Amino acid sequence: GTLSDPNEIVVFDWEYCNRGRGLIDVSMFILDTFQPQERRKYEMDLLGVYHSTLKGKGIENYSFDECVKDYRFAMWDNFALWVVGGGVCDYGGGY
Question: Which residues contact 64 (CB under 8 A, 6 or more apart)?
């Protein structure tokens, strides 16, 4: 789109620049934002907003069930990232 609206927010996320499921970023946001009980309370509503936004932008042939499945795979991807990342950290405390 264009930046014709001065109040429009545009975000570029270059932290993990790769090709993959869009739900990776959604799941990372939800994991980083909410405690587990809050996450369980809000995640399906947030996924509904995400999915309806995709539909509103012309994405067709992508059901909400597929969106939820991709979200669950993305949650495992993020979990693996933390396990692998944590495995190479030095927890000895020495600086």
Answer: 47, 48, 51
Pick from 23, 32, 29, 34: nearest CA to 67: 23
**Distances in whole angstroms, Cα of residue 60 to Cα of each of 23, 68, 71:** 16, 16, 17
Place of tokens 């995709």: 54
13-35 tens-digit pLDDT = 666 666 677 888 899 889 888 99
DSSP string, 8-46: -------TT--SS-THHHHHHHHHHH--HHHHHHHHHHH
Whole-model pTM: value is: 0.68
